[in-house]
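Input record (one chain):
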Amino acid sequence: MVSLKRELSLDSKLIENIIFYMSNGHTVIISCSNPEGTKSNVFALSWLTFGSYNPPLFLMTVSPGNFSHSLIKVSREFVINVPSSKLKDIVGQAGSMHGDKVDKIKKLGLTPLKAKTVKAPLIEECFLNIECKVTKEFKVGDDTIFVGKPTAIHYDEGVIIEKGFAESYKDKKNQVHYLDIGGTTV
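The corresponding structure, as predicted from the sequence alone:
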């Protein structure tokens, strides 16, 4: 399948807009895979934050008991997939299944797309996809914080306009947030 997604240059001034946009509490779908790209998984994540504008960095907390943690730990990469509110039920379900027991991408009816710089897939149904490489990790209590540096950014036509995000994407009614979804976000 040919993707209709556009790619944002990593030296674009709009990177700061994306980081700021992501700091408002979006629940996202993280995709990850083993280093060979033969086993992929997705999970819902509500606690994603930015760590730095320059260089752009994202921080996410993942429990070592989760299958995705083991995939990210060995592959050192992941994709942040930002869904619209149309996917809120799928986002909730993504957090309530175990990826080591079921192919969640297939079960949820999501469409994986080949990424440019990582083995983890982009999720076509999401309007923004941020490929990241893990630059650091920290053990914090019983969890791990992974620091991800964007290596490629893809978006659907009409999402990003000349000065940033289109108004319809800034509207919180079109976004997914923690209390909007069913299931858990692990």
